[in-house]
Design goal:
6 helices, 22-stranded antiparallel beta barrel, 41 strands, mainly beta, five-stranded mixed sheet
Length: about 700
């Protein structure tokens, strides 16, 4: 699995890392412990959001509810569960029309991102999250096929005493979420035969803010661990998700201003998406000696998707058109094996990690017309004749090596190297006299180095400098079509390559942490839309782009029950040379989908019992919608408030009740944009003032 090649730093005799797959590995202690080592000591831009912060007075439906406090991370709710959240890190991933691009996502060390770099957040169960770790900058190069960063999610591990919990939330637009969770353990985890478990399930339904945006979603997550003997553990991981979502689509600027809730194409074409995914994972860890540890992680999953698009009949009549209904059947699996060695060379402690990661995915992709003719009149929203049938195979093979040296009590040196190979192969089974053979294959190789030096000015103040190279391959969707209209894969596409330099400072002030990062990323062969029409999008390489900016954050806890969080991001992302495809993009144009300024602040009063309350404010500057910068989503500022009461009684029972209001001042704004949408329907409106109430009841078995 790709993220196992994460660098780490050593402080005193302990090593630290942001390695998402090593949930029980001491190299993760830097961002897993609330005391001692922390985010302070990692020589990289790392932010950690605890699971309780994700759940406290929140609907627990989308990660966008709670990750605004992470600088550099732009995560927006499309109000469209057929297309997933829109997520980008330092501007990487902003062009994605659906799913997540440019950012690697992991849940308990298992990738939610496929080998080609396309990921999704639909299988993430907020109800069972222990913490979310967001890694930005040069360190993300060590994760392979991602340029922007890594979002690693770790779910809860069961402990004694056993606890049973049930929760419910009701909000505006007919929104319901009901959940149940059970956690527990036998023994303390140190003896052979000790078992821990955490099982969670939820059901979410909504009519949606916009017309034709109703959704039903069922989600389950399980984690079962056993200590086999004194030196080894085995963990079984299970996850399943089922989504039935209507797709309201984007709006033109005129449509948005006229009625932001409308969905004219959704109603006309009955656009929708059905998704089912199930996956299993197994992690084995063994202490080979006092200095050596072996970790093996394997997983297998299946994902079935059917999606109806808003494509008129006329374009679909072209012999080469793939139709307006997509049917996907995916099987994916992988295995990561790594060895970690800790030792001393003279008086210098060092850590060495070596491993091999292999991931593969097989996809059967079919396309059908989205209409049936009734007396010559098309009835949309019905699966018609087949127009596409292909089998796609993708795999990556990545050996990696990394090391960390504590040169002195103040200086730490980290270095890492990864050689990534990504392979695509497509076999076309829909070949006719007027539709040629689109079969083809493509392979990419890239050497990804990274280095970092950290200087501890004081025990509470660290300075670091890091540099690294990342790359991002085209996805199978981006390779599927050529801009010249000819058959075959778009094998002329090159992967984008990014060189990032970062200077950072982290300071512990009382019970708070202040961080600052100054960075610049230069990218060659940026992937952009060449042409988008008739439901078919082709891509090209854009030459050179530059992203540079500043990230500031403050996480301050004071007076026991008060917590202040603030974040600000300045990101200047521009094209550095003129790029011409369907039209020309002048040098100096802003990259679309990226806010130049983002701000966040929240204040929370959260005692363990009694009344609790919170407020947050979010600011987003204007966002360009296309490469030509022809239109933009306006700047907005929104405010949210929450309040509730926690009651504990009889030492076993606990009840937490809350209410919240979002967009308090009923601001009308665009929540996200569809970058380079060929018909000019870029805008995905956000809801006005909306309300919700919720409660969680838990019982502890003493």
């Amino acid at each position: 699995m790709q993220p196992l090649a994460v660098s780490y730093a050593q402080t005193s005799a302990s090593s630290v890392s942001s390695d998402p797959a090593a949930s029980q590995d001491s190299t993760l202690m830097v961002i897993k412990q609330r005391s001692g080592l922390s985010e302070l000591d990692t020589p990289a831009a790392v932010s950690v959001v605890e699971g309780e912060q994700l759940r406290n007075s929140k609907p627990q439906v989308n990660l966008s509810e709670s990750l605004g406090s992470v600088p550099g991370l732009q995560v927006q709710n499309r109000q469209n569960y057929a297309q997933d959240l829109q997520m980008s890190v330092r501007g990487f991933g902003s062009r994605s029309m659906y799913g997540v691009r440019g950012v690697r996502i992991y849940v308990d060390g298992i990738p939610a991102t496929m080998p080609d770099g396309q990921g999704q957040t639909s299988n993430i169960d907020i109800n069972s999250i222990e913490k979310v770790e967001v890694l930005r900058g040069p360190y993300s190069a060590l994760y392979g096929n991602a340029s922007g960063g890594v979002v690693n999610i770790e779910t809860q591990t069961g402990t004694q005493p056993p606890t049973l919990e049930a929760g419910s939330y009701y909000g505006s637009y007919g929104t319901w979420r009901n959940s149940v969770k059970a956690t527990g353990a036998t023994g303390d985890g140190t003896q052979a035969g000790d078992v821990n478990y955490a099982i969670s399930g939820s059901r979410f339904t909504t009519r949606g803010f916009r017309d034709h945006s109703g959704t039903q979603k069922s989600l389950g997550n399980g984690k079962f661990g056993v200590r086999l003997d004194d030196v080894s553990t085995l963990t079984l991981l299970f996850n399943s998700v089922s989504v039935d979502a209507n797709d309201p689509g984007g709006l033109s600027e005129a449509e948005w201003k006229d009625n932001p809730r409308q969905s004219p194409r959704g109603d006309q074409y009955n656009t929708r998406k059905y998704l089912d995914q199930t996956q299993l994972g197994l992690r084995y860890q063994r202490e080979l000696s006092d200095n050596d540890q072996l970790t093996m992680t394997a997983w297998h999953g299946e994902r079935h998707t059917t999606q109806y698009q808003s494509i008129p009949m006329t374009p679909q009549l072209r012999p080469t058109h793939a139709g307006g209904v997509i049917v996907l059947e995916r099987k994916y699996q992988g295995i990561d094996t790594r060895w970690k060695h800790q030792d001393n060379l003279g008086s210098v402690p060092f850590t060495l990690i070596a491993g091999l990661d292999y991931e593969t995915m097989t996809e059967r992709r079919q396309g059908f017309e989205n209409f049936n003719l009734n007396n010559g009149v098309p009835e949309y929203g019905e699966k018609g004749a087949q127009r596409r049938n292909e089998k796609n195979k993708m795999w990556n093979l990545d050996p990696y090596l990394q090391t960390s040296w504590s040169l002195t009590s103040q200086w730490t040196l980290d270095a890492g190297l990864r050689y990534s190979t990504v392979n695509f192969d497509s076999q076309d089974y829909y070949v006719t006299s007027t539709n040629g053979d689109d079969s083809g294959s493509k392979r990419y190789h890239k050497l990804l180095p990274m280095g970092s030096v950290n200087y501890a000015v004081t025990p509470a103040w660290n300075l670091y400098f890091s540099a690294g190279r990342g790359f991002e391959t085209p996805t199978i969707n981006e390779l599927s079509y050529r801009s010249d209209g000819e058959s075959g894969l778009n094998i002329g596409l090159k992967p984008s390559t990014s060189d990032t330099y970062e200077l950072g400072s982290k300071t512990r002030v009382g019970n708070g942490l202040v961080t600052a990062a100054l960075f610049q990323t230069n990218t060659d062969n940026e992937l952009v839309v060449a042409e988008s029409s008739g439901g078919r999008t082709s891509y090209t390489n854009a030459g050179k782009t530059r992203r540079r900016g500043v990230e500031l954050s403050l996480d301050q806890q004071f007076a026991m029950d008060w917590r202040l969080k603030m974040a600000w991001t300045l990101l200047d992302a521009t094209y550095r040379n003129e790029t011409c495809a369907a039209s020309c993009t002048p040098a100096g144009n802003r990259l679309p989908g990226i806010a130049r300024n983002m701000g966040y602040a929240s204040m929370e009063w959260a005692p363990e019992e009694g009344f609790h309350a919170g407020a947050d404010i979010r600011y987003m500057s204007n966002i360009q919608v296309d490469d030509q910068n022809s239109a933009q989503a306006p700047t907005y500022t929104v405010v949210g408030l929450s309040g509730g009461y926690r009651l504990n009684w009889a030492s076993n029972w606990s009840l937490d009740m809350f209410t919240r209001v979002d967009n308090l001042f009923d601001r009308e704004y665009v929540g996200s944009v569809i970058v380079n949408e060929g018909n000019g329907r870029y805008f995905e409106p956000a809801p006005g003032r909306n309300y919700g109430v919720g409660a969680t009841l838990s019982y502890t078995f003493e």
